[in-house]
Design brief:
This protein is an all-alpha fold and 192 residues long. It is 71% helix and 0% strand. The chain has helices at 3-13, 24-29, 34-66, 72-94, 96-102, 113-124, 129-157, 169-184. Helix 1 runs parallel beside helix 7. The longest helix has 33 residues, at 34-66.
């Protein structure tokens, strides 16, 4: 599989949020403003890429070598938690407004199943390190794309008249479903 096909497939065809339904919590929770969605996407991109590299190396050179594959999930979660703490400390110093905007959702990156899912998927797909990095970055771009699109639509919906029964989460879920259906259109694309 070429890097380009991994890139396009991860962003559009198998979008982590809209096709695989991983990372729904931040997708719904941090998508009220485009600026917050971009910030969350950047944080997830950083954590996902670094976590994939570190977990890949741990899997190949420690867990597989020592026959400790059963420890995969626990080790991966610990690595992701440590990386999120690092991102939280950096954001607090570098961008306090973004840190405040992300609020409780920043620590939730620790339990974001999209990050853990990507770390496990690269092992299951038997990617090499470079393919794993391309997959992680592409998946994070897909995650960010979905969040920014969703946030843009939600910002627009806040200025329109929505029936009272559909305001808030109900209309957000309808929009998320429509976005997922729109991305299903990419599933027929053959790459490579």
């Amino acid at each position: 599989m070429t890097y380009i096909s991994i890139f396009i497939t991860a962003i559009f065809v198998n979008n982590i949020v809209l096709a695989q339904f991983l990372g729904i919590c931040p997708f719904l929770g941090v998508s009220k403003k485009v600026s917050t969605a971009i910030g969350m996407g950047a944080a997830v991109t950083f954590v996902m890429t670094i976590a994939t590299i570190v977990t890949y190396l741990l899997q190949k050179y420690l867990l597989d070598a020592a026959g400790l594959q059963f420890m995969q999930t626990i080790i991966f979660i610990l690595v992701i938690a440590a990386l999120v703490q690092m991102v939280e400390i950096i954001l607090k110093k570098v961008s306090p407004p973004l840190y405040q905007a992300l609020g409780v959702f920043l620590p939730l990156i620790t339990t974001n199943c999209a990050i853990l899912g990507v770390a496990i998927l690269v092992i299951q797909k038997d990617y090499n390190l470079m393919e794993s990095v391309v997959f992680a970055i592409s998946t994070a771009i897909g995650f960010t794309l979905a969040m920014v699109l969703f946030a843009g639509i939600r910002e627009q919906l806040s200025t329109t008249k929505v029936p009272k029964a559909m305001q808030g989460i109900p209309i957000a879920l309808v929009v998320a479903g429509l976005l997922a259906m729109a991305f299903m259109g990419f599933s027929g694309i053959k790459i490579g």
